[in-house]
Amino acid sequence: MNKKEKLIFWQQRMSRFFNHSGLYYLLIVAVILLLSTSVIFSFVEGVGFWDAMWWAIETTTTVGYGDIYPHTVLGRIVAVILMFLGIGIIGVLTSTITNWYRASKAHFEKLESIETEIKELREQLSEHEETKQLLQNLVSELRKNKNNDTKKDETD
To answer: Ranges for the Potassium channel domain (predicted)?
Structure first.
């Protein structure tokens, strides 16, 4: 495969991955969740937006460095909501990737099975072609013999 074919192959593969698995919608929900909780956390806790985004990402991924954490009740409520939804999103993301990988593996195994079957059918066809050629040769021989017999009868 040349570079263009490889690019098209991976583009189609990624398109199927994002569109057919629902990952596209999951990523939209994750971005909305991160942005909205970052804005709320930034406003409630009085930290900058990018610090709030850092906090939202580390909370969603359950890393929790502890460098930024909520001090207010509303901030803690937002944190709990983000923890539950974040764990859910990470779980769905992991499941989606796993299922896509398994489906791809099954697809390739099926392709290998089809390729094997095609090879066997070609071998059978080749055997039939050889048989056909033998039969044609026999028919040709029989015709020659018949012609020779007819010529003999005519001369006798």
So the answer is: 29-101
